[in-house]
TrEMBL record:
Alphabetical list of SUPFAM superfamilies matching this protein: Chaperone J-domain (SSF46565), DnaJ/Hsp40 cysteine-rich domain (SSF57938), HSP40/DnaJ peptide-binding domain (SSF49493)
Organism of provenance: Sphingomonas taxi
Oligomeric and partner information: Homodimer.
Listed PANTHER family: CHAPERONE PROTEIN DNAJ, DNAJ HOMOLOG 1, MITOCHONDRIAL-RELATED
CR-type zinc-finger residues: 133-211
GO BP terms: DNA replication; protein refolding; response to heat
Main localization, broad class: cytoplasm
Source organism phylogeny: Bacteria, Pseudomonadati, Pseudomonadota, Alphaproteobacteria, Sphingomonadales
Protein name: Chaperone protein DnaJ
Gene coding for it: dnaJ
Function: Participates actively in the response to hyperosmotic and heat shock by preventing the aggregation of stress-denatured proteins and by disaggregating proteins, also in an autonomous, DnaK-independent fashion. Unfolded proteins bind initially to DnaJ; upon interaction with the DnaJ-bound protein, DnaK hydrolyzes its bound ATP, resulting in the formation of a stable complex. GrpE releases ADP from DnaK; ATP binding to DnaK triggers the release of the substrate protein, thus completing the reaction cycle.
Matching SMART domains: DnaJ
GO terms for cellular component: cytoplasm
Length: 373
């Protein structure tokens, strides 16, 4: 089912949805289709596996970026996708969905803290900014640690106590026929602890929604899709658990003159037919602030590319620069003065055919073909 259905459609999310929205939608759908709530329903079981597969891909920034670009093909032939087969069973999937409440190790012990979700931020930069790099600030709305309780979830001056129902494991077991089913503790909701007096600001979650201003350093040489990681700036974990990371994906605006391929810059330069015939030079301002002189050899043809070494984009986190490649486009004049037309007529009268060997050769071939017939 999931191999042909769009992952965003499965999770009922827009393609630009942030990590928190995707996670929230996943929880709702996983709870709706969970086998424990739909015993014996094959359709619900298939949907549960499908939304779990979709979430495994979209919650990971690298997998999500690959999926956004290549779709399902990114994970075919061992491409690293997050299929339902990656899970050990329904218990693993359920634990993945409701991790912060069921984060205990299988062998016992206290419930483990689950780190907060990673988040994604898309930033647009100009080609000039991609060349030089820049320091900037961004504003994000994110779930952050509660300052009142310092992430504990308990009212200041109080503390959480171990859940007596599960003895701090966060899970309880129940016999169902021949099987033993492990579920989240219904008393502490998988946390392993009970907060009798929750923090009034975060209501026991240990985190609140905040608007944060973050400094971002964009290094020189970044390209479309370059990812910058801000460690610990993602969603805060519940009740003092470590925060996730914030991934900034860069998008480079289209430039009116230059096109880019890796570290190479490309530009199209129209020149007059007299310059093409006689030769000359082009002065092209580069992104590096220098003016680059491109020599045009006499007799150059349209489509010819001239390369200026070291005038392209800088190497990301490296040394040196790529090249600037200028593609020549010979422009035929459309408006001529009387004098210019007279001079061109005189030039045509002196033509022997040797001036344009390609044209002469083409018509010679045509003559030979028709003569043979």
């Amino acid at each position: 089912m999931s191999s042909t259905v769009d992952y965003y459609e499965l999770l009922e999310c827009e393609r630009g949805a942030d990590g928190a929205t995707i996670k929230s939608s996943y929880r709702k759908l996983a709870m709706k289709y969970h086998p424990d709530k739909n015993a014996g329903c094959k359709d619900s079981e298939a949907k549960f596996k499908a939304v779990s597969e979709a979430y495994e891909v979209l919650k990971d920034p690298q997998k999500r970026a690959a999926y956004d670009r290549y779709g399902h093909a990114a994970f075919q032939n061992g491409g690293g996708g997050g299929g339902a087969q990656d899970f050990g069973g329904f218990s693993d999937i359920f634990e993945s969905v409701f991790g912060e409440f069921m984060g205990g190790a299988r062998g016992g012990g206290r419930a483990q803290q689950r780190r907060g979700a990673d988040l994604r931020y898309d930033m647009e930069v100009s080609l000039e900014e991609a060349f030089h790099g820049k320091a900037t600030e961004i504003t994000v709305d994110v779930s952050a640690q509660c300052d009142t309780c310092h992430g504990s979830g308990a009212k200041p001056g109080t503390h959480a106590s171990t859940c007596r129902q599960c003895n701090g494991h966060g899970k309880v077991r129940a016999q169902q026929g021949f099987f033993v089913v492990e579920r989240a503790c219904p008393v502490c909701q998988g946390a392993g602890e009970i907060i009798a007096d929750p923090c009034p600001d975060c209501r026991g979650e240990g985190r609140v929604e905040k608007t944060k201003t973050l400094s971002v350093n964009v290094p020189p040489g970044v390209d479309e899709g370059t990812r910058i990681r801000l460690s610990g700036e993602g969603e805060a974990g519940p009740r003092g658990a470590p925060a996730g990371d914030l991934y900034i994906f860069l998008h480079v605006k289209r430039h009116p003159i230059f096109e880019r391929e890796g570290t190479t810059l490309f530009a199209r330069a129209p020149i007059s037919f007299t310059t093409a015939a006689l030769g000359g030079a082009l002065s092209i301002p580069g992104l590096d602030g220098r003016t680059h002189e491109i020599k045009i050899p006499a007799g150059i043809q349209s489509g010819k590319q001239l390369r200026q070494r070291g005038a392209g984009m800088p190497v990301l986190q490296g040394r040196g620069q790529g090249d600037l490649v200028v593609q020549i486009e010979v422009e035929t004049p459309t408006k001529l003065s009387v004098r210019q037309r007279e001079l061109l007529e005189l030039f045509r009268e002196t033509e022997t055919g040797d001036e344009c060997p390609d044209s002469q050769g083409f018509f010679a071939k045509l003559k030979g073909v028709f003569a043979a017939e």
